[in-house]
Amino acid sequence: MSWFNSLAGKKLLQTEQSVIESLINDKFGYFAIQLGNYDCNFLTGSRIATHLFSGGKYQNISFFNSALPINADSLDLIICPHIIEQTSSIEFFNELYRTIIPGGNVVFVSFNPYSFAGLRKLFWFENVAPWNGNFISPNSIQKSLIDAGFTIDEAKMSNYQLIFNDKTLNFNESLESIGSRWLPFFGNIYFIVAKKMETTITPIKPGWIKQKKISVAINKGHL
Questions:
Q1: Which of 90, 99, 159, 192 could in theory staple to 70 by disulfide, Cβ–Cβ 3.0 to 4.6 A?
Q2: Which domain holds residue 186?
Q3: Calculated CA dihedral for residues 154, 113, 139, 189, nearest 10 degrees
């Protein structure tokens, strides 16, 4: 059973959904896909026409994340909730870059290793997702995205709660205020919005060399 099915896990998914919706509400296009086996619909507020889901109760397509069976330059938006905790190979980032259209976006959310969530993973040794995954720092993920060809549009931290009790829905606003102000890089989760930017070849008009006019003097007397 995934931890995300617990009360605390469901509450965190709701928080993530709210943040992701704010990050994608200005994104338009034809095709958006949500990766991962989650019952939470992160595309609810998306203005993109067609929504695809690779898992969960909304699933309408199935494939392995490491090899997306999608044509190149086909997707306008890809949502990756906690995917990089299970797979963060360069092949995965390359596949994201291949399938997204120029100007399209990929949105990541993942646990921050330098947080209360990171402490839980370090000391509790739980063999259940997401705690059995690999928590990777946002700086490392941003570097991998840039190496794959993306640019980073936005990055932010969220959730400074004591993430140790799975049977509570308590949310301490004071912790959020203190964390966001004094410990901004130690949120339990982080969000990254990456964009595929491809340089286009701009045709340059040839600089024609104007030849000087040659004046020809005609001696009418020899015609």
A1: 99
A2: 3-222
A3: 0
Closest CA to 141 of 192, 178, 102: 192
CATH number of the domain bearing residue 34? 3.40.50.150
Residues of the chain with pLDDT under 50: 214-218, 223
Angstrom distances, CA of residue 134 to CA of 28, 160, 172: 32, 20, 27
Tell me how many domains the chain contains: 1
* Cα 222 to Cα 112: distance, rounded to the nearest angstrom: 95
Report the distance separating Cα 222 and Cα 13, nearest Å.
Answer: 98
Give the distance, in angstroms, between the CA of residue 85 and the centroid of all CA atoms in the same chain. Answer: 13
Phi, psi of 163 (to 5 degrees): -95, 60
Residues in contact with 55: Cβ distance below 8 Å, sequence separation at least 6, in sequence order: 35, 36, 37, 38, 62
pLDDT at 203: 53
The pLDDT score that the predictor gives to residue 207 is: 55
Identify the DSSP state of 137.
Answer: -
